[in-house]
Amino acid sequence: MPRSTRRRPALSHPAAEEIDLYDVLHALSDPTRMTIVRVLRAEPERACGTFPVDVAPSTLSHHFKVLRESGVISQREEANRRFSALRTVDLERRFPGLLDTVLAALARNETGAEATWHG
Asked: Could you tell me the pTM of the whole model?
């Protein structure tokens, strides 16, 4: 059976000046999305199906959409794959230090939780 010739809708990304703090904070409030952000912080770009998360593909697509539409990530398509990257420069210009602060707080929280758990 031939594959569909329908094209996926174009990916929408807010312009850098339209990135809203509340949308970014909402996007960063989910553990799965934070896993995506942490991986992208360590790697400049990654194929969407290769993140170490344990969610259904449709749920993962939703998380990518929230991150993309909030301005946290950009995505591009290449053949039948979609690649994601953090919009670090745009986020830093718009909200200096925000991403570093959130990631550092998450790391402190996880370290504190481990210390309590093993304590």
From this structure: 0.85
Residues 6+ apart with CB under 8 A from 64: 36, 48, 73, 75, 82, 84
Residue 119 pLDDT level (bands cut at 50, 70, 90): very low
> What is d(CA 39, CA 63) in angstroms, rounded to the nearest whole number?
14
User: 3-class secondary structure for the chain?
Assistant: CCCCCCCCCCCCCCCHHHCCHHHHHHHCCCHHHHHHHHHHHHCCCEEHHHCCCCCCHHHHHHHHHHHHHHCCEEEEEECCEEEEEECHHHHHHHCCCHHHHHHHHHHHHHHHHHHHHHC
Q: Residue 59's closest CA among 80, 78, 88, 31?
A: 31
CA triple 62-25-82, angle to 5 deg: 35
